[in-house]
Amino acid sequence: MSASERSEGWVTDQLSRLTDEYGSAPVHQASWSVSGPRYEEAAAVDTAEHAAAGVRVTNDADETLLVRDRHNEWAPPRGAVAADESLEAGAKRNVREATGIDCEVEGVERITIVSIGDESDRDRPPIYCLVVLFVGSCGSDQTVQCTESPVRWRHSRPGDSLDPGVLAI
């Protein structure tokens, strides 16, 4: 089975599992063209490593947890999911590592399927990745512990401008 078929099958299985667990959620599609060497890297990694996830966390005061990302924008905490963890576990770990907050996942806000193509050989089949933004919450006893980037609670919920391109895959 090719890397394209494996990644497509894994994404399909994850979409089915997420729908069974949380119900339907908006699914978006994006395409990236990358260099031949970067395409080869994507094709060589374990299929489960083709995922990124985060959580839009709210607290008892209806504030949203945000971190300043590598693009200098305020966004929900997110990052890559390891091959040995579920999308939910990876999302919760990303929140904890970025903010010190332990959260619960309650649903799915948005799913993006990313198709990675080889810009130098358009005939190569795409490698598929999955980017998931969960919704979740934490108790009032949770306090932010700044780690490497600024963290804050925001009263007004930011617009849904999550771009899959800013997530680490």
UniProtKB/TrEMBL annotation:
User: What Pfam families does the record point to?
Assistant: NUDIX
Query: Which chain positions lie within coiled-coil regions?
Result: none
Domain Nudix hydrolase residues, every copy = 48-169
Superkingdom of this protein's organism: Archaea
Q: Which InterPro entries match?
A: NUDIX_hydrolase-like_dom_sf (IPR015797), NUDIX_hydrolase_dom (IPR000086)
**Name under which the protein is recorded:** Nudix hydrolase domain-containing protein
Give the species: Halococcus hamelinensis 100A6
